[in-house]
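Quick one: co-fold with adenosine-5'-diphosphate.
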Amino acid sequence: MMNKNYFQPQAETMPYDEIKKIQDEKLVKQVRHVYNNVKYYRDLMNEKGVTPDDIKGIDDLHKLPFIKKDDLRQSYPNGLLATDIKNCVRIHSTSGTTGKRVVAFYTQNDIDMWEECCARAIVAAGGSNEDVCQVCYGYGLFTGGSGLHGGSHKVGCLTLPMSSGNTDRQIQFMMDLNATILCCTPSYAAYIGETLKEKGYKPEDNTLKAGIFGAEPWTEEMRKDIEKNLGIKAYDIYGLTEMSGPGVAFECEEQNGMHINEDHFIAEIINPDTGEVLPVGSKGELVFTSLDKEAFPLLRYRTRDICVLSREKCSCGRTFIKMTKPLGRSDDMMIIRGVNVFPSQIETVLLNNGYTPNYQIIVDRINNKDTFDINVEMRPEDFSDTPKGITAKEKELQSAMMAMLGINPKIHLVVPNSIPRSEGKAVRVIDNRKRLGINI
Ligand code: ADP
Ligand code: ZN
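Sure, here it is.
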């Protein structure tokens, strides 16, 4: 069934030349705002010999310097603030997945824009004011909870502000209040699905119809699994604290890439090694410029997320450019024995072979050689197997990993439920090489 509802139809379906016009105008203004109000930016631009007068539209974007996570850390906490702090109404901070947290400031307009982006995502997933939206992203400093909560209000859903954790209570409220839309990380959605099953519920026993899952990488295989276990359609949502939070991009009914809210953000793809801007369709690092942020506007922010953009016509009628699921963060990538390995590749192999997405990768360096172990929970049928049978299954999985990765991990089939579940972003990798001070 086609869903022709948009939260803001005029913006979401405007022709590209209008999008470009809006971006041109907003960029010129935003560059002035940043240059005039943020010394850190003024210095960066002066260093590069570029002034606001050089920026007449998005074709000049490449002249601006990049800004990186390190710049944010250096200017912690408020070195990049572009407005008087008394105009700000809130802060959030990153999850700190890859190091020291950074903080971002919001004015009321910034919050409104962000919540509207999340509302677009909810409507694109089939949401309306008739829905009951269960938000079990973490609330607090993390942007997940507040973002979807605000979006849910804007759509007019009945909002269940659950935050993450206490899975029994999540399930009780889901059942008692007939939740129809579930918002959380994909790893928590998988865990909720698993717990429902353990409690004897079938997918058709719940009233959920859709899920909006993001904040961490997940594979198509995991999507299928979650959809099957919860009896829903699972939509991806992408965002980062530095740009506002979730809702920078969201999936439509095609479930084939996420539309970037281009009236608020400009997306570029660059070669992460050289900084060169690549044409649409190339794989590279995603770079964002926020056009409307007042308090914490970033120009050409390097996300370190690797993906591909596409401007192909989408059957949903939205005209915003689409991004593929991030294939992983450039800093998620492990180099093991000289080979590039992404956790998402491992997840794909596991799910294709009937295993759950509950796994942990352990990397170490012993006697100058990288060790590479993967703990994987047994399938129910493996559990009663003989030790010999289990060894054979480990070998089988090892060959499948070798075919995907090009190197051999050591597989350990472990007892079901023995790998810790995550209520937020899952911890997939334990890289003990860090203790040796190795820069990985
Ligand atoms: P941190 O960088 O500390 O995790 P955030 O909570 O702001 O801070 O997370 C933003 C990052 O989360 C993104 O840069 C991206 O790497 C990841 N992310 C967010 N949404 C998705 C998604 N749908 N798919 C894959 N990765 C995602
Ligand atoms: Zn679409």
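If it helps, The mean pLDDT is 94.
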